[in-house]
Each structure stands twice: as structure tokens, then as C-alpha cells.
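Consider the following input, taken from an annotated entry for BioF2-like acetyltransferase domain-containing protein (Candidatus Gottesmanbacteria bacterium RBG_13_37_7).
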Amino acid sequence: MEIKEITNKKIWEEFISKYSPQSLFQSWNWGEVISKCIPTDQIWRIGLLNNNSLIGIALVCKVNAKRGKFLHLRHGPIFSSWNRKNLSFFFAYLKNLAYENGCNFMRISPLISNTSENKTLHTVMRFRDAPIHALDGEYCWILDLDKDLNTIFSQMRKTTRYLVRQGEKKDIQIIQSIHKKDLDKFFDIYAKTAKRQNFVMHKGIREEFNIFSKDKQLILFLGYCQKQLLAAALIIFYNHQAIYHHSASIEQKIPVNYLLQWEVIKEAKKRGMKSYNFWGIAPEDKPNHPWCGLTLFKKGFGGRTVEYLHCQDLPLNLLYYQTYLLEFVRRTWKGY
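Applying the prediction step yields:
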């Protein structure tokens, strides 16, 4: 086996599509987003080959955070076969890469099932659960789109159906856009949403918009009532799934968000998507989780829970435990 840099976008995307099509943050375009929006970070696109046959890939990012440097593999790595031999060879290479770049730990979050077998496999590799909450859609709500729209609508929560119908009766207009001027409008209410809900605005949304929309993989949905923008959602279309990635809204009682989501579902069906990923939800055993209200909203459209293996850390030196303590306290304080 050997490790090589992958420079061909087509080869890269074909491998993801075959073995882990839901892994948005391993996509070629996501690597471009990181390169554009965080110039202090460094990325590698590496492949694991066995007899010149590609059997694994990883978009690896060196993160230079205040809490410490680390290698980050969001939604990765991806293997054609998850076994100890492949993992041992691959992570031995990554450990050397981490040491060469002064990293304190390695963090991975492959989108593989949260089974005892997968947990044991990573424990053997000396990984441990990261002290952060469920990020990056590792615990998410999925709506399958293999039924007709009437059936999908009928399987929504009764209250959700009612609010969608009410939205259709009101002077609400849902606009689809890939224009930068409309992204500025999104940021206007996104800043207000962040302040109201007390979260830090995501970096790189503008770069994400520019790069994914160029490949026709993104649409900005804008919800207006009487010419006032009340809600917006940035939806990514990647590998037969639509992803509810960023959103913003103004506090009001008009059901514009419900109608907006219904229009997203219809567009996803039109594009031949197999599922709509509503992204992260609150775990059922945490009734005080900050996402409980949002979770109730998402579940109203019907669907099912999908749970992947929790984010894993591989400590490389004692400085990692400073990061562990900081992130553990932060997660607890925020109620996650």
C-alpha cells in the first residue's frame, strides 16, 4: 500500500459518490472553500492505494486554532473497506504528517454507522470520543424523497401541513437565487439571527456560495411577505441529496419558513434528489438541548433519524488535554 496526492477532481468525486455520497465536507469543492476562506489553514487531498487501486481518500486540513493545532478530517476518511489493515497504514501516515506540522491531535468524523464494531475499531486505533457535541450532521433528520409529493405532504405532522397551507394563502413569495446581491440580503438577517439565538456566525459562507453555485450545487431560497425578507435558507445539492446547510429568519408569526421548506422539498424532487438532509437535530435524551425547538420544526416535515459515529480524537501529546478540557466545559456550559 502507498499514499499519494490526488489531483484529479473527477477521480476524487467518483470515489466519494461510490463509497460515501453523503460526505459533503470531503468533497472537492469543500476543499476549495477552505483554501479560499481560511488561508492560515493548509489542506491535503490524499489517497490510499493498494496495487495502484484507490481504496481510500481523505481531505485533510491543518487547523491553526487558539486552542491548539490539529489535523481535521470532517466527514472523513473514506474507505472502500473499513478494516484494521487499511486504518493502521493510513493513520500511521497521518500521525507523521501531524507531528511534522506541530499538531497536538487528530480529529476525524467519518460518516459511518454508530455501531459497536466501528467504535471498537477506532478504540483499537487509540481514538476517543471528542468532547464536542454532535456537529456536521452526525445526528441528523433525513426525509426520503422516493414517494410522490402528495404522499410526502400527507405524512407531515398535522400542524406542519396546516402551516404550509396557511403560507400558500398569504402574500408570501419564495424566490430561488444564485445571485451575489441576494446573498447580501441573506447576511442582513443572518446577523440578526445569530444575535437573537446567541451563536457565532459561520465563516466561509460567501466562498461556499460562490464555489458550489458555480457547479450548480447550491440555491439560496428567500422567503418574502409584502416585499419584506423574513426567512432564507442556503441549500446544497450534492450526490443525490439536498442539504439544509445555513438558514436565517426574522422573528414573526407568518409561516414563511414552513412554505420555504416545502418549496425546497419540491425543488429537490424536481432535481431527482433521493433525500433531503435537514442536518443536525437534538438527541432525544436531551430535552433541554438548544436545538429542541429547531428539531421539532424539522421533524414536522416527516422523515427519520440517522446517526453516525461520533467525532473521534487521536491525542498526540499532553497539550491535547488542555483542548479537551476547554471544549468539554464549553459544551456543558452551552447545554449540549
